[in-house]
From TrEMBL:
InterPro entries: Quinoprotein_ADH-like_sf, Secre_tail. It comes from the Bacteria. It comes from Hymenobacter busanensis. SUPFAM superfamilies: Quinoprotein alcohol dehydrogenase-like. This is T9SS type A sorting domain-containing protein.
């Protein structure tokens, strides 16, 4: 693999979270521009040369946050000490948003080098994806790598005071393989990553076209076990890597970057703008149950290196973030300039089923180097985080000032107005060392950012102490955004999905988590109720089947009401 691509792939891993041991809490958020409300360190290293790094975060609606990453030596998470079995072990830890303390930490790994790279959450069930070498113990499950590095995915049940592994599966072959993204939906667990040569996923086999290819796979969770249902590859003769995965109903979206002269996504070619650089991609697969089929692929491209690092989905809208150092970048009909070095990229695509189009694209940056590593969406509000090295960096009308000559954390919010968007605000954090935002999630009205901070990094009025070994300090920082509070009651409508549509014998309605019950009703063109169902409150998304076999072909209307809010979807019956 070319050294440049290796360095770009390693950047979000090497420059992520090293944790120290403190929790700092404070008052209330402002009405419009939030302030940091809490900043918590975790996983302080206890032995010389030891470290703990975090690569992903996810939050629930109750204010709890989960982190995953890697550590070696002995590390402290609150009052809990964990020691690695090898050079590096993976871990998953739960931060309690009520007590502001860690409820539990679960080490995962063996004598080799292991790391968790991604998390997904539904109810009290976590799914973690990552990379391991040699033999790794994940709870009571032992995995053995088939080659240099393999990917893993595991299910962890949060029991309150502990996290328990229910099952774990590996993916890979004799080369360097890994999983870098995981998402969970009503039809299964989906993972993405890359592989080299031939990779085994249970009874399924994939072969790469050249160096590393993109991997996308679905697992069926049977409770205490799981099996791979389907697997797909994408790419060309060069190194091609996936970084992110997101779901909306049966639609599976994957983002990453490729260096092949032309990368194939299920017969859909994406040419590279240059034979010696990297372009970013976003692609969609449709999960039919037993198979996953590519529907479309889009690229962001220019004469230099351009990357997609993270995705977020709301209905048929896909948000992609990354960074680029091309002098000009093309995203469909939109062309972006460059402020110098790498600039932040944020763009919106609209999925039309068999195709997609760019709705808008924006950049942010200064004369130095900026990156975006994670994105989350709540209603029309899009949040992104990363790091910036410029002395000043502009996010719309907000100018952030770097505290040093290295890297500071930023958190920015855009408001999506449909055909355009605008930056609403931006926050920064940091001190004398290198500081990065790497993980981002939304739980209730709270925004959570995880990352790596240097000595005595400041989050507004709050300062994180360094670790006792002098290593950088990891953090989870949070604030409440009033805009999320105002849209939380209606955002469920944007997350509601009905599929397939058109349908024949039955249709599935996917509802997001709801604090109160919802009434579903199917009516005809005359307004007559043909079917009705009450969905109970749920802490996670739920699915409900609408029987259609007794209906004549035609157009019907599905009504969903929760509290005073209601939404209608048109449903075609064949």
């Amino acid at each position: 693999m070319p050294a440049r691509l290796l360095s770009l792939l390693a950047a979000p891993v090497i420059r992520t979270c090293l944790f120290g041991a403190a929790a700092l809490l404070c008052g209330t958020a402002q009405a419009q521009t939030p302030v940091w409300q809490a900043a918590a360190g975790a996983g302080i290293t206890q032995s010389t040369g030891a470290l703990a790094q975090v690569y992903a975060t996810v939050a629930d609606a109750n204010g709890n946050a989960y982190i995953t990453g890697t550590f070696n030596g002995t590390a402290r998470f609150g009052t809990t000490l964990v020691s690695s079995a090898g050079s590096n072990d993976a871990f998953v830890a739960k931060w309690n948003g009520t007590t502001n303390a860690f409820d539990w930490v679960l080490p995962l790994g063996g004598t080799g080098s292991d790391r968790g790279t991604a998390l997904a959450l539904t109810g009290n069930t976590l799914y973690v994806a990552g990379i391991f070498t040699g033999t790794a113990a994940l709870g009571g499950v032992q995995l053995i790598s088939a080659g240099q590095e393999d990917g893993f995915v595991a299910k962890i049940v949060d029991a309150g005071s502990s996290g328990n592994v229910a099952w774990a599966r590996s993916a890979g072959g004799s080369g360097f393989d890994g999983l870098t993204g995981v998402a969970v939906g009503t039809t299964g667990v989906f993972v993405t990553g890359s592989f080299n040569g031939t990779a085994q996923l249970g009874g399924l086999s994939l072969s790469s076209s050249g160096s590393n290819d993109v991997l996308v796979a679905k697992l069926t969770d049977a409770g205490s076990t799981a099996s791979f249902t389907w697997a797909q590859r994408a790419g060309g003769t060069g190194p091609d890597l996936a970084q992110a995965i997101a779901l909306s109903g049966p639609n599976v979206y994957v983002g990453g970057y490729y260096s092949s002269a032309s990368a194939e996504f299920g017969g859909i070619p994406l040419p590279n703008s240059s034979l010696s650089t990297i372009d970013g991609f976003v692609t969609k697969l449709t999960d039919t149950g037993a198979a996953g089929n590519f529907a479309w692929a889009q690229r962001v491209s220019g004469p230099a290196d351009d990357l997609v690092r993270a995705l977020a989905v709301r209905g048929s809208t896909v948000y992609a973030v990354g960074n680029y150092n091309s002098a000009t970048l093309s995203a469909g009909p939109f062309t972006l300039g460059n402020n110098g070095g790498f600039d932040v990229l944020v763009t919106k695509l609209v999925d039309a089923g068999g195709s997609a189009s760019f709705a808008w694209a924006y950049n942010a940056g200064g004369p130095g180097g900026e990156s975006s590593s994670s994105v989350a969406v709540a209603g029309s509000h899009v949040f992104l985080t990363g790091g910036f090295t410029s002395s000043t960096v502009s996010f719309g009308g907000t100018i952030l000032t770097n505290t040093n000559t290295l890297t500071d954390v930023y958190l920015a919010r855009l408001t999506d107005a449909g055909a355009s968007a605008s930056f609403t605000y931006a926050l920064s954090a940091g001190a004398a060392g290198d500081d990065y935002g790497i993980g981002l999630s939304i739980g209730g009205p709270r925004v959570y950012v995880g990352g790596s901070a240097g000595s005595a990094a400041q989050f507004g009025a709050h300062t994180l102490p360094p670790s006792s070994t002098g290593a950088p300090t990891g953090f989870i920082a949070t604030f409440t955004d009033a805009a999320i509070l105002s849209t939380a009651s209606t955002d469920w409508a944007n997350a509601l999905a009905v599929y397939p549509n058109p349908a024949r014998h039955r249709a599935t309605v996917q509802l997001p988590a709801l604090p109160t019950s919802a009434v579903l009703a199917l009516t005809d063109a005359l307004g007559r109720t043909l079917w009705q169902h009450t969905a109970p409150p749920s802490a996670a998304h739920s699915t409900h089947t609408v029987p259609l076999g007794h209906l004549a072909a035609g157009v019907y209307y599905l009504h969903v009401q929760t509290g005073a809010q209601s939404v209608r979807r048109t449903l075609a019956v064949e």
